[in-house]
Write a structure and sequence with these properties.
The chain is mainly β. Helices cover 5% and strands 46% of the residues. It has two domains: 153 residues, no CATH class; 96 residues, Immunoglobulin-like, CATH 2.60.40.
C-alpha cells in the first residue's frame, strides 16, 4: 500500500527525518557497512512512497530492525557521504522486551542540550525517514548505535540507482564524493571465482583496463577516480567481459552528475 509523504506526516502524525541533517547536529561515529552490524542485528530500509515537490523528488522509507537487545538506549545517525562523521538525527530510542523500538522519556540532567534538540518523537516504526534532495547514485546511510557503543546496526539504500544487467550479471555505480568525481562500481551475478576483463573510459579520454578476480560469491568491485586531466564533467563507461556475460554501464560524472533526477 502506497502513502504520500503528506499523508504519512499528517494523517499518521509520525515524525519525519530529513536526511540532509542540520549543520548544528552533533558529530557522531564513522560509518560501518551493514555487514559490520553487531552479531544478530539486522536493519532494512523499505520504500514507503515518493513525492514530487517542485524539481525535487522526496523518497520516504520505513526502517525495520531485528536482534536488538532489550533495554538498550539507541541513537539514530545519518551519513551524508562515506568519509564523513555521522550526524545525530534522533536520540532516545529504547528497545522493549518484545524487540519493539520506542521513544523513551529523557532523564532530567542526563541528556545534553544537543540531544534534547534531536530527541525522538515516536516509535521507530512510526518514524518516516526521508531522502530529500538526493541525486543519482547517492546512498542513504543510517545507523542505530547504543549510547554505550556496544551495539550497532547499519542500513543503506540508493534512492535513485544507476545499474545495468546482462544475462544475470549486474553492475551498479555509487557516488562516493560530494563533487561526483569518485565512484564505486560493484557487480554481482558473475560466475564465482571467475576472472573478468574490464575497461574503464573516463572523461578527458582517460582509460584504464585490466583483469580482476571475482570473489567466491561472484562479486566485482572497481574504483573510478578523478582523471588527471582535471576534466570537470563528462561520462564514464564501464565494460566487463566475463565468461557468461558482458555488461556495460554508463553514467554521468562530475558537474554533469550533480543534478536532481
Amino acid at each position: 500500500m502506497k502513502y504520500s509523504g503528506r499523508a504519512i506526516l499528517l494523517a499518521l502524525l509520525v515524525s519525519t527525518l530529513g536526511l540532509v541533517a542540520p549543520a548544528s547536529a552533533l558529530p557522531g561515529p564513522k560509518y560501518e557497512f551493514p555487514e559490520h552490524s553487531s552479531p544478530g542485528v539486522e536493519m532494512e530500509l523499505k520504500e514507503a512512497s515518493r513525492e514530487k515537490r517542485g524539481k525535487m523528488t522526496n523518497v520516504y522509507y520505513n526502517l525495520f530492525t531485528k536482534g536488538l537487545t532489550p533495554g538498550q538506549t539507541l541513537n539514530l545517525y545519518t551519513w551524508v557521504w562515506t568519509v564523513s562523521n555521522g550526524l545525530l538525527s534522533q536520540a532516545g530510542f529504547q528497545v522493549e522486551p518484545d524487540g519493539k523500538v520506542v521513544c523513551s522519556q529523557p532523564s532530567e540532567g542526563d541528556v545534553s542540550a544537543e540531544e534534547s534538540k534531536h530527541w525522538c518523537q515516536a516509535t521507530l516504526n512510526e518514524t518516516t525517514l526521508a531522502a530529500v534532495g538526493f541525486q543519482q547514485g547517492q546512498a542513504l546511510r543510517i545507523g542505530l548505535i547504543s549510547t554505550d557503543g556496544q551495539q550497532k546496526g547499519f542500513a543503506e539504500i540508493i534512492p535513485f540507482p544507476i545499474e545495468t544487467e546482462d544475462r544475470g550479471c549486474r553492475l551498479f555505480a555509487e557516488r562516493v564524493s560530494e563533487n561526483a568525481d569518485s565512484w564505486f562500481v560493484t557487480g554481482d551475478g558473475f560466475k564465482p571465482g571467475d576472472s573478468v576483463h574490464y575497461v574503464l573510459k573516463r572523461p578527458g579520454n582517460s582509460m584504464e583496463e585490466g583483469d580482476a578476480k571475482l570473489t567466491e560469491m561472484g562479486r566485482l568491485a572497481l574504483m573510478v577516480r578523478p582523471p588527471k586531466s582535471g576534466t570537470p564533467s563528462g561520462t564514464v563507461t564501464v565494460k566487463v567481459e566475463a565468461s557468461t556475460c558482458n555488461p556495460v554501464l554508463r553514467f554521468k560524472w562530475g558537474v554533469s552528475a550533480m543534478e536532481l533526477p
